[in-house]
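Title: Comparing notes on inverse folding

I've been comparing how different people in this forum approach sequence design from structure. To keep things fair, I'm posting one structure and asking everyone to reply with a full sequence. Here's the target:
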């Protein structure tokens, strides 16, 4: 297994990609939070209090409730300037926070504000970049700070509050951020739900509608064959295997080189692959991507081509939803990009009716927003059931949770799987919870084994050295697609170490080593991607240039 030396094999996987899902004082509570909680409740009997009552989530955020916020909903189709206008407000505010669904978007915003001479920190589960004098922050939504007060806040892609697994973080940002102005950007399908939720918060709510800034034309003819691919095309498919198959097929025609973007590539690699595709001077003029490109990103895409309209959602193969199709199609012909008019089509003729119908239909109105208890609540609940492990506590809590009509309880299936393993270790509830919510990819054996090993080592020694499972200096350029996949997994384990180091810093002291090895991983992956397939002489030089970018980041 390359340079990862796992001592014990574990059959169970852990948590899926929770992105930048994190444990913070404000969100999940800490031992300090728990102590406060215990002190508060020491004189009362937990049995008389129903901790599963989640019917008034707006009361969880007293700092935000002290304020009458001006909430502005920026809604409209993709590429209509929603984020642009919200960011303009953020830029001119005295203090502010941007909360986005992706690390790439948080990076983009931090970069943009710093360039505009508005010092802006970057905070994600795996990064903390502090800029001197910064009063602004760009964060991934799970890191949204609900304990400070801001002049202006932006929550991007707010319709994600309906997401089965991550929705609760958007709900938390919506209810919990204390700001004079709160800008929410997203699909109009979320408007009635947000208005309903905010009826009880005493905020002023205003809706601002937007129109698409440049046309998006659904094509009447399918692509038919990859020999019809042109510069600026982006082919969308949903498996890693298909992405590389299509890349090979296109490159075998010796006319185009393809950049690739998909979820399990390191975010920095995704970003540089996108930059390479965007760069007119690069030979990588076609993009093959998964729905990882579907949110908010601005790419120089002329035409989106769906190679399939079906996606495996973890349970079954299903048709793409109207909002997924619109989000992805919306990447073509971005305003002020190289291509002022966007086109969208499918590889196969039989997929065209679904594409056309979806683009003409409004996204279905969102009915409910995600909700999940914080750690303190779970801890208090656990006192009623002292013999339960975390798995049972989560299971019982979710089963018994009482919610109002506007909310659903977050799907914590993946957390339950992780908890089942972590429960076997001699750890307190808070530590177990932390490992359970960490950003480990459940479908990836190496990544899940990495988590288990970190948790085991932590439970034994309270000290986890990276060298226990990883030998620096042994990473190599992958020679095959299997080796590439393995390197992607190793990157995930290193990423996980960095995440844990931000929550248990004394026990995970090798953050810098992990971060530097992560950077090497992504460089080696890019080296492979640069060498893979047919190359023009100038393209061969490109990976080296991207390495320098990576080093200077
Ligand atoms: N008034 C404007 N002046 C200059 N550029 C603009 C303006 N409005 C939008 N843009 C640019 O147009 C592109 C699309 O805008 P933006 O990203 O805000 O769209 P969006 O509605 O948020 O799209 P999505 O739903 O895909 O997130 C961006 O590159 C943005 O910088
Ligand atoms: Mg946007």
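Reply #1:
Here's my take.
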């Amino acid at each position: 297994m390359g340079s990862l030396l796992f001592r014990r094999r574990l059959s169970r996987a852990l948590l899926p990609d929770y992105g930048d899902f994190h444990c913070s004082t404000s969100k999940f509570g800490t031992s300090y939070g728990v102590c406060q909680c215990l002190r508060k409740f020491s004189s009362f009997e937990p049995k008389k209090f129903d901790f599963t009552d989640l019917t008034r989530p707006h009361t969880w955020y007293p700092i935000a409730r002290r304020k009458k916020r001006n909430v502005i909903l920026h809604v409209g189709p993709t590429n209509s300037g929603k984020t642009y206008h919200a960011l303009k407000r953020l830029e001119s505010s005295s203090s502010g926070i941007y909360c986005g669904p992706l690390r790439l978007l948080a990076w983009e915003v931090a970069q943009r504000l710093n360039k505009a001479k508005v010092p802006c920190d970057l905070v994600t589960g795996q990064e903390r970049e502090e800029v001197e004098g910064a009063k602004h922050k760009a964060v991934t939504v799970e890191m949204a700070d609900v304990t400070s007060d801001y002049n202006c806040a932006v929550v991007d892609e707010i319709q994600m509050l309906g997401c089965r697994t991550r929705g609760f973080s958007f709900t938390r940002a919506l209810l919990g951020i204390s700001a004079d102005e709160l800008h929410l950007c997203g699909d109009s399908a979320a408007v009635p739900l947000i208005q309903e939720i905010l009826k009880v918060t005493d905020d002023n709510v205003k809706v601002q509608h937007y129109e698409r800034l440049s046309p998006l034309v659904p094509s009447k003819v399918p692509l038919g064959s990859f020999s019809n691919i042109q510069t600026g095309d982006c082919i969308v498919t949903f498996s890693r295997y298909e992405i590389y198959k299509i890349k090979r097929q296109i490159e075998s025609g010796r006319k185009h080189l393809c950049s690739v973007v998909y979820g399990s590539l390191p975010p920095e690699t995704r970003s540089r692959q996108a930059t390479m595709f965007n760069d007119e001077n690069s030979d990588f003029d076609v993009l093959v991507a998964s729905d990882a490109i579907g949110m908010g990103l601005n790419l120089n895409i002329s035409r989106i081509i769906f190679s399939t309209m079906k996606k495996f959602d973890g349970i079954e193969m299903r048709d793409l939803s109207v909002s997924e199709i619109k989000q992805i199609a919306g990447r073509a012909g971005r305003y002020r990009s190289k291509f002022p008019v966007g086109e969208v089509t499918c590889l196969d003729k039989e997929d065209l009716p679904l594409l056309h119908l979806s683009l003409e239909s409004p996204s279905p109105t969102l009915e409910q927003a995600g909700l999940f208890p914080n750690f303190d609540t779970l801890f208090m609940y656990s006192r009623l059931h002292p013999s339960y492990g975390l798995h049972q506590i989560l299971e019982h809590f979710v089963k018994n949770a009482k919610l109002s009509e506007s909310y659903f309880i977050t799907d914590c299936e993946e957390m339950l799987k992780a908890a089942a393993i972590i429960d076997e270790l001699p750890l307190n509830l808070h530590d177990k919870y932390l490992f359970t919510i960490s950003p480990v990819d459940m479908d990836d054996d190496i990544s899940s084994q990495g988590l288990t090993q970190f948790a085991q080592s932590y439970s034994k020694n309270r000290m986890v050295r990276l060298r226990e499972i990883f030998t620096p200096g042994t990473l190599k350029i992958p020679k095959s697609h299997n080796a590439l996949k393995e390197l992607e997994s190793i990157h995930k384990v290193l990423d996980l170490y960095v995440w844990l180091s931000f929550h248990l810093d004394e026990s995970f002291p090798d953050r810098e080593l992990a971060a530097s090895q992560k950077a090497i991983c992504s460089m080696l992956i890019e080296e492979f991607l640069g060498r893979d397939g047919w190359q023009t002489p100038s393209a061969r030089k490109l990976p080296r240039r991207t390495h320098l970018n990576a080093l200077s980041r």
